[in-house]
């Protein structure tokens, strides 16, 4: 699995449309707010041409690409934590994701109702962000009251935890998302299992009309906002991409150029996701299988081996590493070895 991504945003902004574009599914994406109630889950195979080439050169019988999971949930509105709209309970469905994608409406269409009369992407994102903070506050408060009970039983260690959690609560109340708080390692450990939402890396998806690809003031303002927060923002023509996702590969390429689009939305989201989560891909290949794996950048090879098989970590001896570029240029494993281009690395690589 590459990563899991939850699509969030105001109602009727195009979350389900983009979910369909990403997963080539056909869930209901109709023109009325709160069209989605139950979450939609889609697993997508990330076709990587590089892996196909590796598989071909090594002569692998099977090729296994990475998969990604997307979760499309109901729209949030201001006051959701107080029960406005559909409330905020469906946010539980994205507690297990690695990253959240804020889908933001950047298209003008009088026929598609919006929560406010004027389109303002930054305000829209902040409404959603506030609801995420309030959801976290709810979770933290619940844990706090449990801890308070436990502290009464007299465990001094729990007293520290109580203090730490109270501090987090105060910062959330000031509108600070968890990822902007400076937390000690112990505190990070304390909240790890609480599955809080504002600690998750975020990306922004500006949903635009195909005729507004260039010079879109809404996209500009969202991009500036995302930049200020150090988070990636990518623009997608949700509706067109949804149509393209239903076509076969050849027609997809034709359509993309016809619409003046450079690539599939999935590729853009994947890049944004990998960058915000600091992920990289490595391939393993033998005659049985060529396989793509996703790991955090900087992972040592012994830990990476555990991805392939848990036994490989404890029993790790060495890794034979070939640069993808060399493999493609030379095109044969035998020659790679003869030329000394296969490096042997120990645990620390
Ligand atoms: N003009 C235009 N309409 C769009 C675009 N993307 C989505 N829509 C339309 O907007 C309406 C709502 O889209 P959905 O994908 O259902 O939106 P949603 O965010 O999932 O909505 P909820 O599930 O109700 O929260 C549909 O009629 C879409 O066809 C776009 O890029 N341009
Ligand atoms: Mg929807």
Question: What does this entry show, briefly?
Answer:
The chain is α/β, with parallel strands linked by helices and 349 residues long.
Helix content estimate: 40-55%
> Looking at this structure, what is the CATH superfamily of the domain at 4-119 and 197-276?
P-loop containing nucleotide triphosphate hydrolases
Largest beta sheet: strand ordering: 2-4-1-5-6-7
Shape: flat
Number of β-strand runs: 11
Bound molecules: guanosine-5'-triphosphate, magnesium ion
Q: How many separate helices?
A: 13
> Helix/strand/pairing class, anyone?
alpha/beta
Alpha-carbon distance between the termini?
Answer: 23 Å
Rg, nearest Å = 23 Å
Strand content: 15-25%
Spell out the helices and strands N to C.
Answer: EHEHEEEHHHEHEHHHEEHHEHHE
Q: What is the CATH topology classification name of the domain at 4-119 and 197-276?
A: Rossmann fold
SSE layout and pairings?
Blueprint: E1 4-8, H1 15-23, E2 40-46, H2 49-58, E3 62-64, E4 66-72, E5 99-105, H3 121-152, H4 156-173, H5 185-192, E6 202-207, H6 217-229, E7 233-236, H7 238-245, H8 249-258, H9 265-276, E8 279-285, E9 289-296, H10 301-308, H11 310-314, E10 319-321, H12 324-330, H13 333-338, E11 343-345
Parallel strand pairs: 1-4, 1-5, 3-9, 5-6, 6-7
Antiparallel strand pairs: 2-4, 8-9, 10-11
Helix pairs in contact: 1-7, 3-4
The chain binds guanosine-5'-triphosphate and magnesium ion.
Written description of the protein model:
- 33% of the residues are buried.
- Among the domains are: 4-119 and 197-276, Rossmann fold; 299-345, no CATH class.
- It is α/β, with parallel strands linked by helices.
- The chain is flat, with a radius of gyration of 23 Å.
- The protein is built from 13 helices and 11 strands.
- Helices cover 42% and strands 17% of the residues.
- The model has no long low-confidence stretch (mean pLDDT 92).
- The structure holds guanosine-5'-triphosphate (GTP) and magnesium ion (MG).
- The site of guanosine-5'-triphosphate has 25 residues, from helix 1 and helix 7.
- Guanosine-5'-triphosphate is lined by residues 9, 11-17, 29-31, 33-36, 74-75, 107, 109, 112, 207, 209, 237-239.
């Amino acid at each position: 699995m590459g990563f899991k991504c939850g699509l969030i945003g105001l109602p009727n902004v195009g979350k389900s449309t983009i979910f369909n574009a990403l997963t080539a599914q056909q869930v209901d994406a109709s023109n009325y707010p709160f069209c989605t109630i139950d979450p939609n889950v889609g697993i997508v195979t990330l076709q990587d041409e590089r892996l196909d080439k590796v598989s071909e050169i090594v002569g692998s019988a099977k090729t296994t690409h990475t998969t990604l999971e997307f979760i499309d949930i109901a729209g949030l509105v201001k006051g959701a934590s107080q029960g406005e709209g559909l409330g905020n309970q469906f946010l539980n469905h994205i507690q297990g994701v690695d990253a959240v994608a804020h889908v933001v409406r950047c298209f003008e269409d009088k026929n598609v109702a919006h929560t406010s009369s004027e389109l303002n992407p930054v305000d829209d994102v902040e409404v959603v962000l506030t609801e995420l903070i309030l959801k976290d506050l709810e979770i933290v408060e619940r844990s706090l009251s449990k801890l308070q009970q436990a502290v009464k039983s007299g465990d001094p260690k729990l007293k520290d935890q109580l203090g730490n959690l109270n501090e987090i609560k105060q910062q959330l109340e000031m509108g600070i998302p968890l990822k902007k708080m400076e937390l000690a390692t112990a505190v990070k450990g304390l909240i790890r299992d609480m599955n809080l939402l504002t600690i998750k890396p975020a990306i922004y998806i500006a949903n635009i009309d195909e005729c507004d690809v260039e010079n879109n003031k809404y996209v500009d303002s969202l991009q500036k906002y995302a930049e200020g927060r150090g988070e990636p923002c990518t623009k997608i023509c949700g509706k067109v991409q949804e149509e393209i996702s239903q076509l076969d590969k050849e027609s997809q390429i034709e359509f993309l150029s016809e619409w003046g689009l450079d690539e599939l939305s999935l590729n853009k989201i994947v890049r944004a996701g990998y960058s915000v989560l600091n992920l990289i891909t490595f391939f393993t290949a033998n005659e049985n299988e060529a396989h793509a794996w996703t790991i955090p950048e900087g992972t040592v090879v012994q830990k990476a081996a555990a991805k392939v098989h848990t036994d490989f970590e404890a029993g790790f001896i060495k890794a034979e590493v070939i640069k993808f570029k060399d493999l493609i240029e030379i095109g044969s494993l035998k020659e790679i070895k003869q030329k000394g281009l296969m490096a042997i690395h120990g645990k620390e690589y």
